[in-house]
Design brief:
single chain; 278 residues
């Protein structure tokens, strides 16, 4: 069983300054819910109910969000506003929450390695809250978890991107063994278009075996002087132990202002208003 889901949430969110000067970027709201809540909902829907946060300085609001606020609940008890807390109350009841702190920003790979303390020797999911993924069927992490359960092999989410965008992502090459499912043969972190092995870009959903931790310990700093998860996954892929899956769903890059606005408009029109009966 895959029960743990790791959320690396220690980043500074500099593209959203000054809003993120005193507020975690993961707490930016898409309509009426913070980004990180969408990710936690996705994890719990997949049966990953042990939620592990790798946080940093100034990120306490994330932990507080998934805890009871006695003062607030006392103030609105019995009023029609009480219903606004239903969704997060349900998450608190369904999930188990733990956190550790990444003392230095040394890249995604370092953040994942920091989370080993919480994950232990178990397979685990990873959700990057910046990537908001929505669809009507099973969520992206559910799709990956099902492939992991079936194959016993680490699996990452991918999507096709335009040539002009490949330099923003890790990019894979692989052999398609089933429709949309590739056994990875190569990975490059943020390649120039002429160096990209394909247009299949890695997005922020993974289900990994715990052997990735030993590989990360031996992975030197790569692109931008940071420990790159992509480099560690390439080492694992050379042994034939990484799949990539072209997931079903719509992904919004909420790490960018344009993507965040697009996500907000989509959620407002397609989720929020229908729920209000409008």
């Amino acid at each position: 069983m895959i029960k743990k889901c790791l959320f690396p949430v220690a980043g500074y969110g500099t593209r959203f300054l000054p809003a993120t000067k005193s507020m975690p970027k993961e707490m930016l709201t898409v309509v009426n819910k913070p980004l990180v809540q969408y990710g936690v909902e996705e994890a719990l829907a997949a049966g990953l109910d042990e939620i592990c946060f790798v946080t940093g300085r100034g990120k306490r609001a994330i932990i507080d969000h998934f805890d009871v606020s006695y003062e607030l609940e006392h103030q609105i008890a019995g009023s029609n506003k009480e219903a606004y807390l239903t969704s997060v109350r349900n998450l608190i009841e369904q999930g188990k929450f733990a956190s550790t702190r990444q003392s230095e920003m040394k890249g995604l790979g370092h953040a994942i390695l920091t989370g080993e303390l919480l994950v232990g020797n178990q397979p685990f999911g990873i959700i990057l809250a910046d990537d908001l993924c929505l669809n009507e069927g099973p969520g992206v992490i559910s799709q990956l978890a099902e492939i992991y359960r079936r194959t016993g092999t680490s699996v990452i989410a991918i999507q096709e991107v335009g040539e002009q965008d490949v330099s923003k992502f890790g990019v894979i090459a692989g052999d398609e063994e089933e429709p949309g499912l590739y056994r990875v043969t190569d990975m490059v972190e943020k390649p120039e278009p002429e160096d990209a092995p394909s247009n299949l870009a890695i997005i922020g959903r993974y289900v990994l075996s715990p052997e990735i931790f030993d590989i990360l310990r031996e992975t030197p700093p790569g692109k931008d002087g940071e420990v790159q998860l992509t480099d560690a996954l390439l080492t694992l892929a050379k042994t034939g132990k990484v799949y990539a899956y072209k997931f079903d769903g719509k992904r919004f890059d909420c790490g960018s202002v344009d993507g965040f606005v697009e996500a907000t408009n989509h959620v407002y029109e397609n989720i929020y208003l229908p729920e209000q009966g409008e």
